[in-house]
């Protein structure tokens, strides 16, 4: 009987050993499978990917310069004549957009020249044309061309992207 008790005690121990061996074997197989997947199917290192792809251009933040009249006045006020011969007025707040700090410096340096040219362009605009979006866009384009011409002449670059009318009032 003592022998039978020893055999009963031996059986659970052998089952524990068998379970431990099976668990270890599964862990070993799982680890091997994971390693094989990593080395065979994982994506290439970032260094290889960047070497194969062309470099993407870096976006430089936009810089805005307020075009101000002498005396640091923020707006242009010009008188216009409508088709009936009536006197009209237009007030504009203008900003220039660029991505180059040297252009910002040039805009600030040549502000009197820019304001003079823009005053001439704004005061020679047709009031009835400016009542349409197309007329406002055409005026904006003329202003952009004038500012680009001045900046190109002074710096050799024409990196002014846009002239923006941040406020426009006509009456």
TrEMBL record:
PANTHER family named among the record's database cross-references: FLAGELLAR PROTEIN FLIL
Keywords for this protein: Cell inner membrane, Cell membrane, Cell projection, Chemotaxis, Cilium, Flagellar rotation, Flagellum, Membrane, Transmembrane, Transmembrane helix
Localization in the cell: Cell inner membrane; Cell membrane
Protein name: Flagellar protein FliL
Pfam families reported in the protein's UniProt record: FliL
Signal peptide feature range: none
Function: Controls the rotational direction of flagella during chemotaxis.
Species for this entry: Proteobacteria bacterium 228
Keyword Transmembrane helix: yes
